[in-house]
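Researcher: We're reviewing a set of sequences before deciding which ones to prioritize for further study. For each one, I'd like a predicted 3D structure that I can look through quickly. This is Rubrerythrin diiron-binding domain-containing protein. If possible, include the structure in token form so it fits the rest of the review sheet.
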Amino acid sequence: MKKFADLTEREILAMAIASEEEDNRVYMMFADDLRERYPATAQTFERMAEVEAGHRDKLTALYKDRFGPNLVPIRKSDVRSFVRRPPVWLTRNLSLNTIRNETEAREIEAEKFYAKAATQSRDPAIRKLLLDLARDEQAHEQIAINLERKLETGAAGKEEVETRRRMFILEYIQPGLVGLMDGSVSTLAPLFAAAFATHNNWQTFLVGLAASLGAGISMGFAEALADDGELSGRGSPLVRGIVCGLMTTAGGLGHSLPYLVPDALPNAFLIATGIAGVIVFFELWIIAYIRARYMQTPFFKAALQIVLGGAIVLATGILIGAS
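Model: Here's the predicted structure for Rubrerythrin diiron-binding domain-containing protein, in token form for your review sheet.
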């Protein structure tokens, strides 16, 4: 993957063209999805799609004038500064909140991309167009904020407070939740497999400790290296990596620590396993609560998903260990 600073003007324009084309299609998908439920909002997205198409045409004309008709095959996924987002636009009947989040993320990313790209361009015409597009994306970002206001009840929300809340979620809650889910769920299988295979608390604890630390290091690096936050607005990759790694480790250690119960005690294995089972129960419900609180996932849906997934992994570990 290329660094953003290493992109040539030709590559910047080619990537901008591809991005505007993608935004045009995504906003048209949103318009189609919203047309029956929110016709006025659907028209807004149709206009946004038309603007993106206009941006694409301007960029294409300038590209052909400077570099000829053949576009460089480069996309956001080829550059480190961009985060890969799930294709939510392929899902029907999306909530306004989900659409607003996706729209705002795209517009913030586009604005930062054009502003940063303009500083690297030496061609006056290219630099002017990029700066003009950055200002246009700011207007689209305001549309996304207005969509968010439709979701609020009571007095109009304070934009600065809401921006801080979103940044807190992006930089701390999301990576922390991903880590907690991975640590709490993925370590169940090796821990309980070791427990039921050995019936030895100390050996089981060592397996849980190794699995927790290994998962924490792996998840921390994965989160930190996935996106530098420079264009996506997700904050410091170091902070996100540390948060994700620590929460992954904590999720795994939570149900590993009970196996520190000395093997010399009567029924030590049953005591440790019983305590670990209770901790697993609370871990899964905490994850469900966080998803409901910050990710707008219905609580019972979140609980069903995470508890079912955890139960399957737990059963897998027990079956393997007992075989």
